[in-house]
UniProtKB/TrEMBL annotation, chain A:
<dbReference type="GO" id="GO:0016887">
    <property type="term" value="F:ATP hydrolysis activity"/>
</dbReference>
<dbReference type="InterPro" id="IPR003439">
    <property type="entry name" value="ABC_transporter-like_ATP-bd"/>
</dbReference>
<dbReference type="GO" id="GO:0005524">
    <property type="term" value="F:ATP binding"/>
</dbReference>
<dbReference type="GO" id="GO:0005886">
    <property type="term" value="C:plasma membrane"/>
</dbReference>
<keyword id="KW-1278">Translocase</keyword>
<dbReference type="InterPro" id="IPR012693">
    <property type="entry name" value="ABC_transpr_PhnC"/>
</dbReference>
<dbReference type="InterPro" id="IPR003593">
    <property type="entry name" value="AAA+_ATPase"/>
</dbReference>
Automatic annotation (TrEMBL), chain B:
<feature type="transmembrane region" description="Helical">
    <location>
        <begin position="168"/>
        <end position="190"/>
    </location>
</feature>
<dbReference type="GO" id="GO:0005886">
    <property type="term" value="C:plasma membrane"/>
</dbReference>
<dbReference type="InterPro" id="IPR000515">
    <property type="entry name" value="MetI-like"/>
</dbReference>
<keyword id="KW-0812">Transmembrane</keyword>
<keyword id="KW-1133">Transmembrane helix</keyword>
<keyword id="KW-1003">Cell membrane</keyword>
<keyword id="KW-0472">Membrane</keyword>
From TrEMBL, chain C:
<feature type="transmembrane region" description="Helical">
    <location>
        <begin position="240"/>
        <end position="260"/>
    </location>
</feature>
<keyword id="KW-0813">Transport</keyword>
<keyword id="KW-0812">Transmembrane</keyword>
<dbReference type="GO" id="GO:0005886">
    <property type="term" value="C:plasma membrane"/>
</dbReference>
<keyword id="KW-0472">Membrane</keyword>
<keyword id="KW-1133">Transmembrane helix</keyword>
<feature type="domain" description="ABC transmembrane type-1">
    <location>
        <begin position="74"/>
        <end position="257"/>
    </location>
</feature>
């Protein structure tokens, strides 16, 4: 497994436009080969969410390649696509849990890619899945909430469930689209800590879109700055200077 | 390696689902036997069905004069019963509103409304046909009763939900009951009334094409006699007309609602 | 500033004009209808007498008639309503899925299913019953199918609306896990529409109890057949017995539905 994780996710010359003639992503080239949090920063509307969604094909990119597990994801469909998707965990700003199901079942929905619809209907989760779910739940500190409905949780708790669901997938990479933007500062730090711990434990990269630069710098092993659909910074978090920030976000009055 | 302990399955298989499925299945079988339903009869019917479809198409509009007569009568029934029914409902709804009237007025009025709505229009229609004879009059009376049952209740509820501040403000000026209703109550509920009324006009239009089946006038009568004469291509023509008129009605009432919102 | 004001005024003026036109058309249509409708005035004035006469002949109820005929017919009516509601689900659920734009993102498919739903709703259940009596002959089958075909449009439309209101973020999250289409339906859509589904079905069942009581008037089984026979023989005390039992069943059904709903919420 460690072997195959070299160069796990590779993005080559990725372009996307929602409307013809209005490119959002312009020739993105990125390699993700080390474990840990990779923070993606950039101004609103620059295409960070679009980039993440192109990776697991919630959006079909206009052109380019997404190499994952030695397959170009932009060229697969249907069953094949789903088989790869189940190794890409995704975490959302609004958590996107199934509110009316219990916390433990929300975790288990992370296994849907591995089971038949009939088994999903009958709730025939394997004993292994159930064990993993409970252990993970304990790890994220929600052991006592297993049988509560997801809509009875606070935002921070929901995000922990969201992360646990993604980890249940046995992912080779995690994608997180502003996982902390709806949370208070303290909870935001806890969530980033959790993502960091899990990414290291699983030895996988976690791509995190984030607006809070200092929070990003605190946890990231690498930062990607985007602006105008291009990557304008790609390197260690310490390497980001005020000049870079000006270039990424434009202007400077906000910096002081 | 530590021994992994198995967690208990968090989804205790509640028997409720299984029991539910069994109950429904048992009911289906019981009901089918009880009512002498059988696949054979059903399949036999399907044969008739395709024969019937053959005879229904293409639709036959050659007797369009008959069709037009029925249509006009249906519209007359719908329009008169809507106007009269809504007008009466205004008062009955006011009388039934518990915040405007003492209990000895509102309670009996509510019983009347409940009686009006608990019977299907067709049942009311046959009673009226027996009482006043075949024709448009029975249809009219039926739909007036149906309108009262539906709209007066909604009117009453809308009036009960109004803000009482304005009523008190106007009452404080020493206004009479009539002017309280006109200037404090009506403005608050007017647009909802229009909405209900449009809905009722719509449903009266639908029902006016139906009550004729039991002899209460309108296009339903034309339809029923076409059925009895096995005139199935004319039946199709009538059905298409009904669908068209209902769609038109829905469109128009949507427009009116837009104007008054 | 003033131009905006001016436009605003013109807008309300148009609105006023439109309202006035609606009033005018309503009054004109009403007067035209009153003048031309084919009603014999004497009959109209005589109506109160006739009606009170009819009611006086209905009293007292013929209670002995209940166990002989009414009870069985009443049960049959309930069966027709229940079976019809169950059968309708076979068609209504798929049509609702095809009609919901957030399930099938294909306008052509949406419109085709909408066409079926609208047709079902535009034809009254009594008319559906006439059609099915012509196909299957008089009896319960025609009644069940009439109820089913009329309810498809109702349940399908409301269910599709409920589906369109669900949170699509959840659906996206499940798709992202690699779940199959069917699994997303089961774990994403279904938990979210489940309460609406049951309340729509119960609501329609309640309506169907009322509707199935009249289908017998055109021969499609149930208590309506008994009512029709009693009417044709002018047996008014039996008629009132039947009417009373229909009334009781309708009220009971309504109470039942209200109770179940309370528990569900
Ligand atoms: N479904 C869509 N259809 C058309 N345009 C879209 C769609 N989604 C996003 N866009 C456009 O694409 C651009 C990039 O959007 P995206 O959501 O990727 O930005 P972002 O970098 O994630 O911004 P934020 O930080 O505010 O989340 C925006 O200009 C947006 O208006
Ligand atoms: Mg975004």
């Amino acid at each position: 497994m460690a072997e195959s994780q070299q160069n796990y996710l590779q993005i080559r010359n990725l372009n996307h436009e929602y409307e013809a003639g209005k490119p959002i992503l312009r020739g993105i080239d990125l390699n993700f080969d080390q474990p840990g949090i990779i923070a993606i920063i950039g101004p609103s509307g620059t295409g960070k969410s679009t980039l993440l969604r192109c990776i697991n094909r919630l959006i079909n990119p206009t052109s380019g390649e997404v190499l994952f597990d030695n397959v170009d994801l932009t060229s697969v469909e249907g069953k094949e696509l789903r088989r790869h998707r189940r190794h890409i965990g995704m975490v959302f700003q609004e958590y996107n849990l199934v509110e009316r199901l219990t916390v433990i079942e929300n975790l288990l929905t992370g296994r849907l890619g591995y089971m038949s619809a009939w088994n999903a209907w009958r709730r025939n989760y394997t004993q292994d899945d159930i064990n993993n779910a409970f252990e993970l739940l304990e790890m994220v500190g929600l052991k006592d909430f297993a049988k509560q409905r997801a809509d009875s949780l606070s935002g921070g708790q929901r995000q922990r469930v969201g992360i646990a669901r993604a980890v249940m997938q046995d992912p080779y990479v995690l994608l997180a689209d502003e996982p902390t933007s709806s949370l208070d500062p303290k909870t935001a730090v806890e969530i980033m800590e959790l993502m960091d711990t899990l990414a290291r434990r699983k030895n996988i990269p976690a791509l995190v879109n984030i607006h809070d630069v200092s929070l990003a710098q605190r946890f990231a092993v690498r930062m990607v700055g985007m602006s105008g659909g291009h990557v304008v910074y790609d390197g260690p978090p310490e390497g980001i200077t005020e000049d870079h920030l000006k270039q990424i976000y434009g202007g400077e009055s906000w910096l002081s | 390696m530590a021994v992994v302990k198995d967690y208990p399955n968090p989804f205790e298989r509640s028997p409720a689902n299984t029991i539910g499925v069994i109950v429904i299945a048992a009911y289906l079988i019981y009901a089918a036997i009880d009512m002498d339903l059988s696949l054979a009869r059903f399949l036999e019917g399907l044969g008739h069905g395709s024969a019937l479809l053959d005879r229904m198409f293409p639709p036959n509009f050659t007797r369009w004069e008959l069709l037009l007569d029925g249509l006009i009568e249906s519209m007359q029934i719908a329009i008169i019963s809507s106007v009269v029914g809504i007008f009466m409902s205004l008062f009955i709804g006011l009388f039934a509103a518990r915040n405007m009237m003492p209990a000895w007025v509102s309670s009996p009025t509510r019983v009347i409304i409940a009686l009006c709505r608990s019977f299907h229009p067709v049942i009311i229609a046959i009673l009226f046909v027996k009482a006043v004879g075949f024709g448009a009059l029975a249809g009219l009376l039926t739909l007036i009763v149906a309108s009262i049952g539906f709209i007066a209740k909604l009117f009453a509820e809308a009036i009960e939900e109004i803000s009482f501040k304005q009523v008190e403000a106007i009452r404080a000026t020493g206004a009479s009951f009539t002017s309280i209703v006109l200037f404090a109550v009506l403005p608050q509920v007017f647009s909802r009334f229009i909405g209900f009324s449009m809905y009722q006009l719509d449903s009266n239009l639908r029902n006016s094409t139906m009550v004729g089946i039991v002899g209460a006038g309108g296009l339903g009568g034309t339809l029923f006699s076409a059925f009895q004469r096995f005139d199935y291509d004319f039946v199709t023509a009538i059905l298409l007309t009904i669908i068209a008129i209902i769609l038109l009605g829905e469109f128009l009432s949507g427009k009116v609602r837009e104007i008054f919102q | 500033m003033s131009t905006i004001n001016h436009q605003w005024e013109r807008f309300t003026f148009q609105k006023k004009l439109a309202r006035f036109a609606v009033y005018l058309v309503t009054v004109a249509a009403f007067l035209a209808s009153i003048r031309t409708v084919d009603v014999i005035p004497e009959f109209f004035y005589d109506a109160p007498n006739q009606i009170s006469d009819m009611f006086s002949r209905m009293w007292p109820l013929d209670t002995a008639f209940y166990p002989i005929t009414v009870h069985a017919a009443l049960m049959e009516t309930l069966h027709i309503a229940t079976l019809g509601t169950l059968v309708t689900l076979i068609f209504a659920v798929p049509l609702a899925l095809l009609n919901a734009r957030n399930v099938v993102a294909n306008p052509v498919v949406n419109w085709i299913s909408r066409f079926f739903l609208v047709s079902s709703r535009s034809v009254n259940s009594l008319v559906w019953a006439l059609l099915f009596v012509a196909v299957f002959g008089p009896g319960v089958i025609a009644g069940v199918l009439a109820i089913a075909f009329r309810s498809v449009g109702f349940i399908g439309k409301l269910l599709a609306e409920a589906i369109e209101e669900i949170n699509m973020g959840t659906i996206e999250a499940l798709r992202a896990t690699g779940a199959s289409w069917a699994s997303v339906l089961i774990k994403g859509y279904w938990p979210q529409v489940k309460p609406a589904f049951f309340s729509i079905v119960l609501f329609r069942w309640d309506i169907n109890v009322r509707e199935s009581a009249v289908l017998g008037l055109v021969g499609a089984g149930g208590i309506g057949v008994v009512l029709n026979d009693a009417m044709n023989l002018f047996e008014w005390q039996k008629v009132s017995m039947v009417l009373f039992s229909i009334f009781a069943v309708v009220i009971l059904a309504e109470i039942l539905v209200v109770q179940i709903r309370k528990r569900m919420i």
